[in-house]
Design brief:
Blueprint: E1 2-4, E2 7-9, E3 11-14, E4 23-27, H1 40-51, E5 55-59, H2 75-88, E6 94-100, H3 102-108, H4 111-117, E7 119-126, E8 146-151, H5 159-166, E9 174-176, H6 187-199
Parallel strand pairs: 4-5, 4-6, 6-7, 7-8, 8-9
Antiparallel strand pairs: 1-2, 3-5
Length: 200
């Protein structure tokens, strides 16, 4: 249990063998539609980080599981993410941030400031909820640290909405052919794509 703005935050920490490169904080999908830190895509992201030498921290947003508080449309969730970064990663230390769906929207809100206070090395956004939320623009200097992955046949967040978000910023989007929002049957492929990015 960690401390968030609204009270305790339930979390899980996965640690790699040997020395850790830093801490990767992973944000889960929409709390009102069954999203938790145990989501299969979130677990897949955690595995990719641990496999490549990072400590992976997953946590339940406010109001989910044993986390205190209530859903706050991404505002309070972003504040909790800021608070966890402050607690878990000393200023200037190596940091990675990842999110799936709603989690990518939450992560997008804190990236610019996290890059000011920390050595923000890697960013992963999967199934970015661009059709449902106003996903923040990513500062140009962070683009080379960013991986955006989306399923070609995502019927929760249409690929076209992610392209509309990415196009003005000239952010490449890695498209998984035939992939849906939850990447059923393609999680090993997703893990491999993320691990390749983390190793680059």
């Amino acid at each position: 249990m960690l401390q968030g703005i609204a009270g305790q935050v339930e979390s899980l920490r996965d640690v790699p063998e040997g020395n850790s490169k830093g801490i990767a904080i992973i944000c889960h999908p929409h709390p009102l539609f069954g999203g938790t830190m145990d989501n299969k895509v979130v677990q897949t992201l955690a595995r990719a980080f641990v496999q490549t030498g990072w400590t992976a921290l997953r946590f339940n947003f406010r109001g989910i599981g044993r986390s205190a508080g209530a859903y706050d449309e991404g505002r309070g969730e972003a504040d909790d993410l800021r608070e966890l970064i402050k607690q878990l990663a000393p200023a200037g230390s190596a940091l990675a941030v990842a999110g799936f769906s709603f989690g990518s929207f939450v992560a997008s809100q804190v990236l610019a400031e996290a890059a000011q206070s920390h050595d923000l090395q890697k960013i992963v956004m999967v199934g970015t909820a661009a059709s449902r939320f106003s996903v923040a623009n990513i500062p140009a200097e962070l683009h080379e640290k960013l991986l955006v992955v989306h399923g070609e046949q995502d019927d929760t967040v249409p690929l076209s909405s992610v392209m509309d978000w990415a196009r003005p910023q000239v952010i490449p989007v890695t498209v998984v052919p035939g992939g849906g929002h939850f990447f059923h049957g393609q999680l090993p492929l997703l893990r491999g794509l993320v691990a390749r990015h983390l190793n680059s």
